[in-house]
Amino acid sequence: MSATSTIELVEGSGQTAHETHNKVAATMPEDVDVPLPSAKVEKKGTTAVIITTITGVTMISSLLSGLVTISLPAMAKDLQISDALLLWPASVYSLTCGCTLILSGAVADVVGSRNMYLVGTFMQSVFTLACGLSKTSIQLIVFRALAGVAISFCLPSAVSLIMTYFPSGRRRNFAFGTMGGGQPLGFTIGLVTGGALTDAVGWQAGLYLAAGINSVLFLLALFGLPKLKRETPLTLARLKSEIDWVGAFILSTSLALLLYVFATWTGDLANIRSPESISCLTIGAALLPAFATWVHRQEKLGNAVLIRNSLWRNKAFTSICINVFLIWGSFNATETFMTFLFQDVKGLSATAASIRFLPEPVTGAAVNILIGLFVHRLRANWALQISFIVSALSPLLLAVMRKDSTYWAFEFPAVALVPIATDVLYTISQLIITAEFEENTQALAGGVFNTIAQIGKSVGLALSAVVASSVTAKAGDPRISHKDSLLEGYRAAWWFTFAATVACIFVTLYGLRGLGKVGVKRD
Fold this sequence. Notes:
Layout: E1 4-6, H1 17-24, E2 27-29, H2 44-79, H3 88-98, H4 101-111, H5 113-133, H6 137-165, H7 170-200, H8 203-224, H9 236-241, H10 245-267, H11 275-301, H12 315-345, H13 350-355, H14 359-374, H15 380-400, H16 407-417, H17 420-435, H18 442-474, H19 482-511, E3 520-522
Antiparallel strand pairs: 1-2, 1-3
Helix pairs in contact: 2-6, 2-7, 2-8, 3-6, 3-10, 3-18, 4-5, 4-6, 4-18, 5-6, 5-8, 6-18, 7-8, 7-14, 7-17, 10-11, 10-18, 12-17, 12-18, 12-19, 14-16, 14-17, 15-16, 15-17, 15-19, 17-18, 18-19
């Protein structure tokens, strides 16, 4: 007899069993033949290897983002990066990753998540090393773009591997929790080590270090991840029939154009009015309904699809996706403008600024471990609401603080509180989104989650940058110092991210009010 995992609804919500199944995908068989391994992982040593490997590689991805963010001025100086390309070493990584995640997930479900994960991990080591060896700005940007594709192989596959190796319950929840905790932890470690190594040795040292650690994790995954069995051999016919290549092309093109536009807006507010930006935005937006139309056709013909249109009529699924979009956008923008605050307004060095972020990984790691261990005992809707309220305090504190306020009075609690909503939402959303996809498309489910998060980060940062730039321009009174004008713009951006976080409270009240416990093991 197979055990099942249930996403419970709160008693008294008035929902029938049929509605419950349609809204939250109530059951997930624990024991299925394909593409799961012959037996679930039971040994503690193997469990530790799996969690360490998966958490480590995703943490390295975030570490690289933090490292590049803090090292960008030094990179620009050494490689003579023009102002037009200044932000591209950081933004191109998210752009290429974001537009290939769903396709990578779909491919991983056919060729095998373990294989895809190993290839992605190896590629990330190679391209990270290549970034450190770059002699020109174009080389650096190209290798960062390829590294973004590499991590898109890893992220969806990691979700599938967790679903495959661990049955529903505490260990699966803990694995998702640690995977989520590795991301803020990695970003902050990247900021701190990147700042220190850039000041002491050079920006290349951080990339070499990251490539070395990633290579160790690749070897650990190669020999430590249990092999998966396959019922049918991999053939070109399967690749052709089981992956919606046309849909993937339409959606990837749309995401690439939209993410490119948002990246250019972040770099220069004037790009909003450029013909190139308007054209890309129009085409990218038009391709989204074209994708929905194509999926409708594929469903009628009984062919493979990436994301069923019917999923968006599921209130719980759609609400979770909206929350992921808003929270990741708010978190990324709030954190980015804190970096600007420390360096551009406070005048701190890269190392000093990065040290001020140290409370974030401590809080993030603790919350992720706790939510991983106890999420199956909590009502998920209340856990989400509490986390949104707590994290909303972060941009609120920054928005109302005075220029001469001490770090401990406003900035310290803001840094400590900002990751909480992201960390709680990460585990809960993974459990809900993966429940909506069949057992043999779990990598695709991981691709959907990570794509929404990437889009949220790009849109949130772009819109916040527009808000901040507009307010800073209006505050450009000759009697007001440049730093004061910048601070006014940053405050406006934090009010914007505060509103986005508060919006999640109302989304949850509407769409997730009947959601009870998630990650619960049922016999």
